[in-house]
Amino acid sequence: MSGHSTYQPQNKFLQWFEKRLPIGGLIYSSFVAYPTPRNLNYWWTFGGILAFMLGVQIITGIVLAMHYTPNADMAFSSVETIMRDVNYGWLLRYVHATGASMFFLAVYIHMFRGMYYGSYKEPREVLWILGVILYLLMMATGFMGYVLVWGQMSFWAATVITNLFSAIPGVGDAIVTWLWGGYAVGNPTLNRFFSLHYLLPFLIAGVVVLHVWALHVVGQNNPTGIEPKSDKDTVPFTPYATIKDGFLMAVYCILFAWLVFYVPNFLLAADNYIPANPAVTPSEIVPEWYYLPFYAILRSIPNKLLGVCALFGSIGILAFLPWLDTSPVRSARYRPIYRQFFWLFVVVCIGLGYLGSKPPEGVYVILSRLFTAYYFAYFLIVLPLLGIFEKTKPLPSSISESVLGAKA
Amino acid sequence: MKTQAIILGAVLAAVIAAPAVAEDQVSPPRLTWSFAGPFGKYDEAQLQRGFKIYREVCSNCHSLNLLSIRNLGDIGGPGFSEAQVAQIASEYKIKDLDDSGQPTERAGRPADHFPAPFPNEAAAKAANGGTAPPDMSTLAKARTYARGFPWWVIDVFTQYQEQGPDYIAAILKGYKDPPPAGANVPQGGHYNEYFPGHNIAMPPPLSDGQVKYDDGSSENLEQYSKDISAFLEWAAEPHLMARKRIGFQVIIFLIVLSGLLYFTKKKVWSSVH
Question: Which pTM value belongs to this model?
């Protein structure tokens, strides 16, 4: 890594400290001098936004946990007590609940950006796989957090999702009983979900450190997909990237604040304001919006075991993306055919999300199957073959040339 | 490219047209609420009237477990004075234990929760033909209706969040006796235009002139249904006014901050471009 400058503290104490633990130098080289491609667009600011959202969720979550009671008889009313009687408890809870959606929105933009610009390709495979692990951890954390409210939708979502494991031949039922800590979703389930919901964010924070580390070893990809060749192609992280990230973070917070303060229940299911009742099944059990595409994939397959395999496969397949995409060219800017398939893939993912919110009947089922087929074909057929047949456009010789060329 | 665009268009059209399939719920009419929109505020007189309806009618069957009597005097609520709250509280009978540990009944205090009409769910079921009347604390947020595409997207921008009160007001006015021809209403049920499936267990709870108002408001079902719905919205969302007030300040702050950051960003990057 070639920095633009190095860390030399003036202060005597900091010099003394730096000789014993060079943490100042680490921070300086990682977040100040770190060379970042000069042509990064705003789609690259979502990594910073994600770090911010993780911080928001951990801080609000820790305070909420001080007031929450993880007991099946008291959980629902303890959440309501937070909303009513804890000072600014309504704010904490709405920020945390809406924050989950904002976190997932940012991660989806971040992932699609990586796919569009080929950020997963050599030498960034490990960086990408760490990202897939982060995404999986986020999904588990979000799901368990949703259950903690212990409303009707919490309870029935927990029942449906844990029941997926009963599809495993032979040991399925035993595994589900083990997950529940009983013969139905109940107090032991709530207790362990609370414990894990508190644990997983710190695992996420740990993997984020690895993710950033891996990023700083291989360097950032950029919209051209070609590596920086000289110091002219890069700018120091601070002030250039920090101010750009900061600006978009503030804009993102406007959307966040709009949802929290004006339409806080827009993303929450009305049924979840009814306390959990094992004796009454809601007319429709629908997961949070960020799981809907996978829910649609699950339900599009008539066989339960195959449906569960498709569900996990649709996420697991992401880890193999660096090897499924055989094209040597990274950025979709220079891949005219890939670009069309990519945008169709985005539309299919959004379409699957819509279908996941609809009852599995009639035209919805047919569309779900078509979209699921495309989802897998995109990874297993389109990407491997495109690398062989696609005629890519000529790449610019350097990043600075592409920037100056675009301006001219 | 062209064929793809056509396929894409066809798929999108199918997805958008699909929800036109009628669902078994009639959308309630959209009413005007004082607490709607970015500067929405509760109307104190309306909440007080709504509370009167709750106390005289609803509370015979519906609990309000999550609220304390003191909440009636909270800022951003019905605006009862401290003395009024104490007076209202003293009119309730609260089950408690006396100094020797024996069950007793005493006058209520502002710190008490609203007493429930039935000792437990089984008793509530038994007294109401097998269906326990739901607790009313979160009812205005627990009831809604499907808005359908594209309305649910537009609602984010227009801040339409009053589906619950609209639905509750519609239910109160939606009884049809006798039911329309062809409607199948089982024994013990009541036909209601806005209830999903049209068969509701609750008999029509309110009728014209049933509750006396002392502020001169009209004493009819139209007014009652609005007042009780507004009261239930407050019961479900007691900090709505603080939320909207702070929200406006936060959003103004963020817009100014974004503007400053934007121009700083432009200045910083001007040397590179």
Answer: 0.94
